[in-house]
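Supplementary Note 3. Input sequence used for the single-chain structure prediction.
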Amino acid sequence: MKYVQINAYSGGWADSIIFKKHRELVAAGNESWVFWARGKHEQDEHLRCIASYPEVCLDAALTRFDGRPGFHSKAITRRLLKKLDEIDPDVVHLHLLLGYYINAEMLFEWLAAHRCKVVWTLHDCWAFTGHCIYFTYAKCTQWRSGCAASTSCPQKRTYPETLAGDSSVRWSYERKKRLFTMLPAERVQLITPSQWLAGLVKQSFLGKYDVKVVHDTVNTDVFKPTPSDFRERQGLEGRFLVLGVAASWSERKGLPVFVQLAKELDPARFAVVVVGLSKKQIKRVKAEVPSIVALPRTNSMRELAEIYTACDVLLNPSAEETFGMNVAEAVACGTGAIVVEGSACAEVADSEKITTVPVSLEGLGAAVIKLAYGGFGISHDESD
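The predicted structure, written as discrete structure tokens, is reproduced below.
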């Protein structure tokens, strides 16, 4: 079998999902290829970065101007389709198409004209909206019937940010609806990392396709209890450590929650540690709350495993998680997690290590204090 995977980048979870699958396919005697646009990874005949940095930047600039992400990058897509013609794959497995590297129209027209089976793992909601990747925080439901058709899109300034107006949002929604539903149902298998996202897909124009839930996997060779001197280096001995981890932080991800918790919790007993902040964010949060431990993003998985292990609880206050990889990684390192109702995080791992609370600062703060003194196993009612 000839199996091709396509993704926006090679780093992060791609190693534990995409490249792991590639290795498994090869070990089973199949031919496997992985193509991506951004990120450093060893390359050979079967592993190939298909885009240059200037090409990605150009796509991003065009998207900022016209609000049509996923419909530029014709040169990159032509190179990709030429490789697909040479391979003649039995299966094309799509992952993240949003990422300033692909022309979805060219890709899906190629898929429609060929015999291959199409597997598409959805890692967010972009495939069935006119613009955004998430909509829960904005309380927007226009994706169910037609984005920007009745009222203005409230998220044009969120990733993938654009200066264009609602007409571009409507155009993208209708174009994606046509392209992404043009393949016959028997040739398509959709995969989501959670029941939460699967439920949304079934309410969208992709609802005609079969959806299979496959939880993302964690690299347990790396993410396991990993002792270190993290507490000593940060001067945090003897305190209950509340951890937040994200690839990038925003209000939607819950950064204000950590800032407020750091203000309200007793600094002699508790410490709030936030990993993944930009230089600007570190300067801002330290100015507001000097006691907060504000750290930049780390590309070292071992270092991240050490931080997970050193902390007492991971807090994920976002209600827009399609899986919650940080929760799974923390649990694999022996650290429990507090998550909010309504996201997919509660599906992730051992329920005895996860506490679910309402979406409120009071609920999260109460859960942290309860855990500090009583351990896991807090019920919803106990944390109110």
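The chain is about 35% helix and 20% strand. The first strand starts at residue 2 and ends at 9.
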